[in-house]
């Protein structure tokens, strides 16, 4: 009997739905520098927050300041603009 590997689930800060970790975009705050970056690999060390790969979820999380609360740090507009570019790369 083969054991199935458990799929890690995370909650999107925009729509509040639980989804597989691989489907979500990770935002990370580094502990020592308080620098905030998008974690494409999902393996950077630091405090992480997850969001669906769509603009609606980003806007919901932005308006409610959920990402700031989850990362326990204020977030500049530059980071939000970078997130928008990551979600909609063709524009």
What would a concise description of this structure say?
With 91 residues, this protein is α+β, with helices and mostly antiparallel strands.
Strand order of the largest sheet: 4-3-5
| Class by SSE composition | alpha+beta
- How many strands, which pairing sense, and closed or not: the largest β-sheet? 3 strands, antiparallel
The CATH first-level class comes to Alpha Beta
Low-confidence stretches: none
Let me know the CATH homologous superfamily.
Answer: YlxR-like
The fraction of residues assigned to DSSP E strands is: 15-25%
Form type: globular
In whole angstroms, the N-to-C terminal distance is: 48 Å
Radius of gyration: 14 Å
Estimate percent helicity.
Answer: 25-40%
Q: Domains counted in the coordinates: how many?
A: 1
- CATH fold field value: Hypothetical Cytosolic Protein, Chain: A
Count of DSSP-assigned helices? 3
CATH architecture annotation = 2-Layer Sandwich
SSE string: EEEEEHHH
Strand count: 5
Mean pLDDT: 91
Describe this entry's structure for a reader.
With 91 residues, the chain is an alpha+beta fold. The chain has a single domain, classed as YlxR-like (Hypothetical Cytosolic Protein, Chain: A), CATH 3.30.1230.10. 29% of the residues lie in helices and 22% in strands. It has 3 helices and 5 strands. The protein has a 3-stranded antiparallel beta sheet with strand order 4-3-5. A two-stranded antiparallel ribbon has the order 1-2. A hairpin with a 6-residue loop joins strand 1 and strand 2. The protein is globular. The mean pLDDT is 91.
């Amino acid at each position: 009997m083969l054991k199935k590997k458990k799929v890690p689930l995370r909650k999107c800060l925009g729509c509040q739905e639980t989804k597989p970790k691989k489907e979500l975009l990770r935002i990370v705050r580094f502990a020592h520098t308080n620098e905030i970056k998008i974690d494409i690999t999902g393996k950077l060390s630091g405090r992480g927050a997850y969001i669906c790969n769509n603009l609606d979820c980003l806007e919901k999380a932005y308006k409610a300041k959920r990402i700031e609360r989850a990362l326990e740090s204020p977030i500049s507009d530059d980071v939000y603009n970078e997130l928008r570019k990551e979600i909609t790369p063709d524009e």
